[in-house]
Model the fold of this input.
Amino acid sequence: MDTAETAGLRQRKRQDTMDRITRAGLKLFGSSSYEATTIDDIAAEAGISRRTFFHYFKSKDDILVSLQSGLGRQLAAAIADKATGLRPLDAVRAATLSLVSAHPRDELVHLDRLMRASETMQARKRANYIIEEWELFDALRDLWPGETETRLRALAMLAIGGARLSLDAWTRADHAGRAEDYINGMFDAIEAVAAAD
Done:
C-alpha cells in the first residue's frame, strides 16, 4: 500500500469513527436529553473509550457544532453544482433549498431543538454564521469573478442571515410547514429589496 492509500484509509477510518460518535450522541440526546447525556454515555454507545472520544471532540457540545460547521463549504459546493447560467442570488437560493431538502423534516426539527437547548450552543451557532459567510463569499468570488466583492460579500451575508432568520421563523411557528417554504419566503424578500434599488 502506498503513502496516499494509507493516508486515505486513515482519513476514512477517522471520519467513520467521528460519524459513529456523532450518531451515538444524537441518538442519546434524543432518547434522554442533551443535559442528561454524559460523554461516558456517548463513548459507550459509540463503542469507544472516553479517551478516544477526546481525540475527536473536546466536549459533547462539539458534536452539535460539528453538524453546523462545514455548512458554508457544503453550500459552496452545492452552488458550484447549480451555478451554470444562474445569477448568484438564484444559485444561492437553489443551493440552500437543496441542502435543506436533503434532510428529513424530523431530523431538522430534532437538530434545531438541540441547537437551541442551551445558551452556550446558541452562542457557538451564532459564531459559526460568520465563518459560513466567509466560506460562501470565497465560493461566490471564485464562481463570479466579474462581480464586485462588495456585492458578493453582501449576498453571502444576506444568504446566511436569511437562512438563519428563516429557520428562526420556522421555529417560532413550532416547525409548522416546511423549512423550505420559510427559506423561499426569505429569498423572495431579499429579491424584493434588491429590486427596489
User: Anything to note?
Assistant: The radius of gyration is 19 Å. The chain has ten helices and no strands. Residues 23 and 46 are 8 Å apart (CA to CA).
